[in-house]
């Protein structure tokens, strides 16, 4: 069972509980599943019971127990445990890692976007506005991409006409500028700490990273450190990890074998971060915080890099099922890195 299928399974459990009269709530559009937090267990967890408890007029733990019995009877689910105030921890029948990798490879860079992770689009219109300042415009554009990835319709506006270089060099554009009519509602006022210097000379990718990687309340550093090709530069690590995964795919093809999802026992941390990617996208969109996605990509890159030396056979060694499984996992990580960089407006080169 993939994360997508499990999310839908959780929603079906809610619908059955409503239909059978045990819960009196409106079935939500989303059921987010993610990796278990501290004190959790199993393959995935969901806080859907905490989300529904107040509307249902019941304690979260009681709502969780109602859903647990229905989830435990589902094919592909081996166990469901309630922890904390009402978190549902779900164990699957031994195929969760392979299913996750299969899902990522099937979805490609769109893994985690709304049409692949939940049922349908919200279609909600979000209006964003920012001052005429380069970081504000860049952050607003990234927030707009994140919201669109979660199914929202987005319109952006700036208080005055932006510098043309912000669009031509940085790719940051706005739908309109100038003073809006008082009757136009505003959903998000994007006002990060301004950039201390002009980032345009850094070029598109380094400039965007410099502006988006720090949290909105932090002062960005506009220096050449974002251009250096070494491990101290987190942008380099992310792009290097992506390029390495692509190179491994080419090298494997030369050796006559291809990726096949399977068990990779020593990669639990990486699998955890890949499974968490849809939640990160949703949270980054909901909080207007593209820095959360940027930091997540660094985490994925740092988790996949130690795996890469063991992907290809060495010497006279023949490709085995373990090599194919590790290659599939590496390619899945590269896919997440490419998709995440794209949402930040940054290129993910195949060669670096």
UniProtKB/TrEMBL annotation:
Q: Which keywords annotate this record?
A: ATP-binding, Ligase, Nucleotide-binding
Catalysed conversion reaction: tRNA(Arg) + L-arginine + ATP = L-arginyl-tRNA(Arg) + AMP + diphosphate
E.C. code: 6.1.1.19
InterPro entries listed in its UniProt record: Arg-tRNA-ligase, Arg-tRNA-synth_N, Arg-tRNA-synth_N_sf, DALR_anticod-bd, tRNAsynth_Ia_anticodon-bd
Q: Which domain of life is it from?
A: Bacteria
GO MF terms held by the record:
arginine-tRNA ligase activity; ATP binding
What does the entry list under GO cellular component? cytoplasm
Q: Which residues form the DALR anticodon binding domain?
A: 238-352
Pfam families from the entry? Arg_tRNA_synt_N (PF03485), DALR_1 (PF05746)
**Domain Arginyl tRNA synthetase N-terminal residues, every copy:** 4-92
SUPFAM superfamilies found in the cross-reference section: Anticodon-binding domain of a subclass of class I aminoacyl-tRNA synthetases, Arginyl-tRNA synthetase (ArgRS), N-terminal 'additional' domain
Q: Name one GO biological process term.
A: arginyl-tRNA aminoacylation
Task: Show the NCBIfam families listed in the entry.
Answer: ArgS_rel_codon
Question: What protein is this chain from?
Answer: arginine--tRNA ligase
Which organism's genome codes for this protein?
Answer: Streptomyces dysideae
């Amino acid at each position: 069972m993939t994360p997508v299928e499990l999310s839908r399974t959780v929603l079906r459990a809610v619908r059955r509980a409503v239909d059978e009269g045990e819960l009196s709530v409106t079935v939500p559009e989303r059921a987010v599943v993610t990796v278990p937090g501290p004190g959790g267990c199993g393959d995935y967890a969901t806080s859907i019971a905490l989300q529904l408890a107040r509307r249902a007029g019941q304690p979260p733990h009681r709502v969780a127990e109602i859903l647990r019995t229905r989830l435990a009877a589902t094919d592909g689910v081996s166990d469901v445990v309630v922890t904390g105030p009402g978190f549902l921890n779900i164990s699957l029948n031994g195929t969760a890692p392979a299913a996750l990798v299969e899902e990522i490879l099937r979805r490609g860079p769109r893994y985690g976007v709304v049409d692949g992770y939940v049922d349908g689009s919200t279609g909600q219109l979000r209006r964003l506005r920012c001052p005429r300042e380069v970081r504000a415009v860049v952050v607003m554009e990234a927030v707009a991409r994140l919201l669109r990835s979660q199914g929202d319709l987005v319109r952006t506006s700036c208080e005055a006409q932006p510098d043309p270089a912000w669009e031509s060099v940085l790719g940051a554009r706005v739908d309109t500028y100038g003073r809006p009519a008082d009757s136009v509602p505003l959903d998000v006022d994007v006002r990060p700490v301004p950039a201390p210097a002009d980032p345009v000379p850094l070029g598109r990718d380094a400039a965007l990273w410099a502006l988006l990687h720090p949290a909105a309340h932090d002062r960005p550093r506009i220096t050449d450190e974002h251009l250096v090709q070494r491990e101290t530069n987190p942008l380099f690590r992310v792009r290097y990890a992506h390029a390495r995964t692509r190179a491994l795919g080419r090298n494997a093809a030369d050796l006559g074998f291809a990726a096949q999802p399977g068990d990779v026992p020593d990669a639990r941390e990486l699998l955890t971060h890949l499974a968490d990617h849809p939640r990160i996208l949703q949270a980054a969109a909901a909080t207007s915080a593209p820095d959360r996605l940027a930091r997540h990509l660094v985490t994925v890159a740092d988790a996949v890099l130690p795996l890469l030396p063991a992907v290809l056979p060495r010497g006279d060694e023949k490709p085995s099922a373990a090599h194919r499984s590790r290659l599939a996992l590496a390619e899945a990580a590269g896919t997440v890195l490419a998709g995440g960089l794209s949402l930040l407006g940054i290129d993910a080169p195949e060669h670096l």
